[in-house]
Design a protein that fits this description.
The chain is mainly α. It contains nine helices and no strands. The chain is 62% helix and 0% strand. Residues 105-125 have a biased composition (Basic and acidic residues).
Length: 189
């Protein structure tokens, strides 16, 4: 992470924020979001970050709003709701949460919450690299990492893999029986 001096936000909004507000006034929330995301990929802008959270919240993308607002000083019921949705989306997988933050937020030192998340993400990565598990198996996993994956993570097979193998064996057996039966009809015995 780069060590940049903390500067006070200017009283004049950036051109990206001004254009995003114009997009919002014109009813183009999606365009405002794209504009803000692109702007924040290149530089840290607290006002743009806060507006991005507002746009995502208005679009009912609570996890994205939570990721944006996590890097700001903004507080309130809407922020708590969005941050909780963001944490739920990632199942408290700290490395995923870290990577979902805008790049400019990840590259800027000085935000205690963001710095703490970075430390937890690094601990999870170090634990996973050393063969440990950052959390108990199945804890906080959602989607592809939950039940139904190809392996249980400890080298064993899970139920889905066993069922798939059984169906494959059954398919091959039926194909062989069908071929033998067909040959019996075609070749007089």
């Amino acid at each position: 992470m780069s060590q940049e001096p903390q500067t006070e936000p200017s009283s004049q909004p950036s051109s990206a924020v001004q254009r995003a507000r114009a997009d919002l006034d014109a009813g183009r929330e999606w365009k405002a979001r794209e504009r803000l995301v692109g702007h924040l990929a290149g530089e840290f802008d607290a006002e743009a970050l806060e507006l991005l959270g507002e746009v995502n919240y208005a679009m009912r993308d609570l996890p994205a709003a939570g990721a944006a607002w996590f890097g700001t000083a903004r507080r309130g019921k809407d922020v708590d709701e969005a941050v909780e949705a963001w944490r739920e989306r990632h199942g408290d997988h700290f490395a995923q949460m870290w990577s979902s933050l805008p790049r400019s937020v990840r590259e800027r030192d000085g935000n205690k919450r963001v710095d703490a998340l970075h430390r937890r993400a690094e601990q999870d990565r170090a634990s996973a690299t050393s063969g440990g598990s950052p959390r108990p198996p199945g804890a906080g996993q959602t989607g592809a990492g939950s039940a139904g994956s190809a392996s249980s993570g400890d080298g064993g097979l899970d139920a889905a893999t066993v069922i798939a193998l059984a169906l494959a064996v059954l398919f091959v057996a039926c194909a062989v029986i069908g071929l033998v039966t067909l040959l019996g009809w075609l070749v007089p015995g």
